[in-house]
Amino acid sequence: MDAKDIDYYALGFEFIETKTMFVSNYKDGRWDEGTLVPFGNFEISPAACILNYGQGIFEGMKALKTKKGDHVLFRPEENAKRFNDSASRMLIPNYNVDKFVSAVKKVVKANEDYIPPYDSGGALYIRPIMIGTGPTVGVKPANEYKMIMFTVPVGPYFPEGFTGIDLEITKKYTRAAPGGTGSSKTCCNYAGSMLPGKEAKERGFAQVIFLDAVHKEYIDEVGAANFFAVIDGVLVTPKTAGTILPGITRKSILELASKKIGMLTEERDISYKELFEVSCTEAFCSGTAAVITPIKSVVLEEKKRIFSEGEPGEITRKAYEMLTGIQRLDIGDEFGWVEKI
Question: What would the CATH number be for the domain defined by 165-327?
């Protein structure tokens, strides 16, 4: 689609084709320099490791337009490092961090006409993927790989915007088990979350809250987002012990809460039972796509806890305004998180 034909004020989170993607190939033990090419299909062997054994990873990033018209990225090196952490877990060759960030900037620059206007609230979503393309029959890593970065103009991940969502706690499904791949951004982790999400939406909820796979008591994630709650005046979030994704937005919120909002923070096991106690005063979820989304209510079978009528809590609002203000350079970036393109 041509950039001028897009209504940037009505964007959702659906795929829209842009003009250019970045492609780099791994063969004979090394990555090539990569190049920008027109967005399009490519051939892959039916025996490719990604198709047979799911050897693939991805990242999610955003390019934003500031009020002054600059195009910026938020902590791209963190995405590059997490990309390599996921690659290592899946026996995929790592990609140089500096070259990764450079490639992101190249693909954004090539598609800059698709970056939504500042006042639309939208962003140019950047999706780096890395897949095993080499053919395999036995269960073993591929010997050839492809990294692709493409972009999509998007609006809010949750169409409700910055207003509370209703969530269902599931004990029927779990997202990840200790010792598995829950802390890696692998393709296979997300396929299994689609059915629980679909069933929850059919019952009128925005998403599910996954509990731990061992006790089915401690909160892991909200669909594909990290979870936060304010309990006894402390901002708490599940610890990164191998079953949840170490979110970059999550990491930034913890630092903002501690250094700018003046809150105590804890990374610990959070029982779902705590959400139904008066000591829990507000909750929200976070991620690159969702940024920060308030939680209006949580439900488990016949139990329901209503946090608000949809308006965000005080801490949720402060964290959201501070984080998005830094991301778009509306307020000073004293942490050095934002990079101009």
Answer: 3.20.10.10
